[in-house]
Design goal:
There is one protein chain. The chain folds into two domains: 167 residues, Aspartate Aminotransferase, domain 1 (Alpha-Beta Complex), CATH 3.90.1150.10; 250 residues, Type I PLP-dependent aspartate aminotransferase-like (Major domain) (Aspartate Aminotransferase, domain 2, 3-Layer(aba) Sandwich). The strands form five sheets. Strands 4-14-13-12-9-5-8 form a seven-stranded mixed sheet, with helices on both faces. Strands 1-2-3-17 form a four-stranded mixed sheet. Strands 15-16-18 form a three-stranded antiparallel sheet, covered by helices on one side. The chain contains 14 helices and 18 strands. The protein has 429 residues and is of the alpha/beta class.
Length: 429
C-alpha cells in the first residue's frame, strides 16, 4: 500500500496559492474523492512520486508519451535546441520541418498553423470556419470536449433543437446560443438540429473518437453523415484530433475512418509533452488566415523551437517505427485480461481500444454517448481507481478520461498490472 504523506503536505500548500491546488481540474482527484499525487520524475512506462512510490503509467501525460517518458532521442533534441535558445518570437526552419512531417501523415492538411494548446487550436479553427463561410453557428456533440473555449464550452438543452446553454459561469448566454450541442452518435438528432440551422451553419466540430467522456469511438455511419451533410451545405467539418492525432494511427482517426475533414486540430504528441497545438486543412481555407487573409490569429510563442524540436523528433520516430498494431495488441491484451478477472467476480465491465488509446467502463455494454457514460457505476470506478493508485497503477482519475499505453509497456508491466488487479478484486471494491 503506497503512502503519500509528502503529496498530502504539498497539496495543502498548493491550495494556498492556486484554485483547488491545481492548474487543471482533473488533477485534483475530486472525481475519485482522492488526494492528488505529486510526481517528481518519469522514465519509460513509469512515473515516480515525491514519496518515492513507483507507478505503471497508463496516462502518459494524457497521451503524448506514446514512446514512453524521457525518450533519449527526444531529450537530446530538446537539449540541443535549449543550448541555442528557448524562444525567438521569429520564424525557424524547424517549424517547416514539423509542418512537413504532419502533412506527410495527414493528407487532408495542405497548410497548417502552429499554436500553443489544443484549446487554442479549436478556438482558432472555429473562428476561421466562421470567417471563411461568413456564417455564425456551430454544431458540437455532448461529451466532446474541445478545450475551454467560450463558444464551445456548452451543454445541450432539454430538447433536440434547444440552443446551447453555458456550461460554466462567465460565458454569456448570447455567445453560447451560437453553438448547438446534440447527442454523440445520434444521427436522427443531428439531422433535426442540422436542418434547423443549416442556413447559418459555419461548421460541425467533433472528436471522431471521443476521449473526454471516457473512450467512445464515433460510429462510422455517423461520421460519414457529418461529412456528407456539411459538404452538401458548404459548411466545414472540423475533426478535433488533439487526442487521436498520431495516437490511434499515423494519420489519426481520419485515416482509420477514411474521412477527410476540412479542418483538423492537433496537439499533445506533436509537441512530445511540451505545450503545443496546431490546426490545418485545405489550402484555400487556411489562406483565409492573416497575413494572407482577413481572419486574425496570432501567438507570441507559437511554433516555439523547443516544442517543435521535440515534436519533430517524436513524429519522425513514429513514422519510422509505425508502432500502432503493436500498441493496439498491448492494449487489447490488458483489457481482455481485465475483463476476465472482473467477470470472475461478476462485476460488469466494458472495454474498447484503438491503437494505444483505450477505455473501460463499469457497465454491461460499451457506452455510445455521454448519457450512457453517466449511467455507468461510479462507486465501482472510484473504489477501483483509488485501490489502483494505492497499489502502483496509474489510470486516469476520472471515468470521463481515456487511457493510453506506450511502446515502453512490455509484458512485464501488463502482467504486473493484471496481478495487482487480481489482488484488488480479491480484497474487494
Amino acid at each position: 500500500m503506497n503512502k503519500i504523506n509528502k503529496s498530502r503536505v504539498l497539496f495543502k500548500e498548493a491550495q494556498k496559492h492556486m484554485p483547488g491546488g491545481v492548474n487543471s481540474p482533473v488533477r485534483a482527484f475530486k472525481n475519485i474523492n482522492g488526494n492528488p499525487v505529486f510526481f517528481k520524475k518519469a522514465l519509460g512506462p513509469y512515473v515516480f512520486d515525491v514519496d518515492n512510490n513507483k507507478y505503471i503509467d497508463y496516462i502518459g501525460s494524457w497521451g503524448p508519451m506514446i514512446m514512453g517518458h524521457s525518450h533519449p532521442k527526444i531529450i537530446k533534441a530538446i537539449t540541443k535546441q535549449l543550448q541555442l535558445g528557448t524562444s525567438y518570437g521569429a520564424p525557424t526552419s524547424i517549424e517547416s520541418e514539423t509542418a512537413k512531417l504532419i502533412k506527410e501523415c495527414f493528407p487532408s492538411i495542405q497548410k497548417i498553423r502552429m499554436v500553443n494548446s489544443g484549446t487554442e487550436a479549436t478556438m482558432s479553427a472555429v473562428r476561421l470556419a466562421r470567417g471563411y463561410t461568413k456564417r455564425n453557428k456551430i454544431i458540437k456533440f455532448d461529451g466532446c470536449y474541445h478545450g475551454h473555449v467560450d463558444s464551445l464550452l456548452i451543454k445541450a438543452g432539454s430538447g433536440v433543437s434547444t440552443f446551447g446553454l453555458p456550461d460554466s459561469p462567465g460565458i454569456p448566454n448570447e455567445l453560447a446560443k451560437k453553438t448547438l450541442s446534440c447527442e454523440f452518435n445520434n444521427e436522427n438528432e443531428f439531422l433535426k438540429i442540422f436542418n434547423k440551422v443549416k442556413n447559418d451553419l459555419a461548421a460541425v466540430i467533433v472528436e471522431p473518437i471521443a476521449g473526454n467522456m471516457g473512450f467512445v469511438p464515433g460510429n462510422k455511419s455517423f461520421l460519414k453523415l457529418l461529412r456528407k451533410k456539411t459538404s452538401e451545405n458548404k459548411s466545414l467539418l472540423i475533426f478535433d484530433e488533439v487526442m487521436t492525432g498520431f495516437r490511434v494511427s499515423l494519420g489519426g482517426a481520419q485515416e482509420i475512418y477514411g474521412i477527410k475533414p476540412d479542418l483538423t486540430t492537433l496537439g499533445k504528441i506533436i509537441g512530445a509533452g511540451l505545450p503545443v497545438g496546431a490546426f490545418g486543412g485545405k489550402k484555400n481555407i487556411m489562406d483565409y488566415l492573416a497575413p494572407n487573409g482577413p481572419v486574425y490569429q496570432a501567438g507570441t510563442l507559437s511554433g516555439n523551437p523547443l516544442a517543435m524540436a521535440a515534436g519533430a523528433t517524436l513524429i519522425s520516430l513514429l513514422i519510422k517505427s509505425n508502432p500502432y498494431k503493436s500498441l493496439e495488441l498491448k492494449a487489447k491484451t490488458l483489457l481482455d485480461k481485465m475483463k476476465e478477472i472482473f467477470e470472475e467476480y461478476e462485476i460488469p465491465i466494458s472495454t474498447n481500444q484503438i491503437g494505444g488509446m483505450f477505455g473501460f467502463f463499469f457497465s454491461d455494454a460499451l457506452p455510445e454517448n455521454l448519457n450512457d457514460v453517466m449511467k455507468t457505476n461510479d462507486i465501482h470506478f472510484k473504489n477501483f481507481l483509488n485501490a489502483c493508485m494505492n497499489n502502483g497503477i496509474y489510470f486516469a482519475p476520472s471515468k470521463f478520461e481515456a487511457g493510453f499505453i506506450s511502446t515502453k509497456h512490455t509484458n512485464t508491466e501488463i502482467n504486473n498490472t493484471i496481478r495487482t488487479i487480481k489482488k484488488i478484486l480479491k480484497e474487494g471494491i
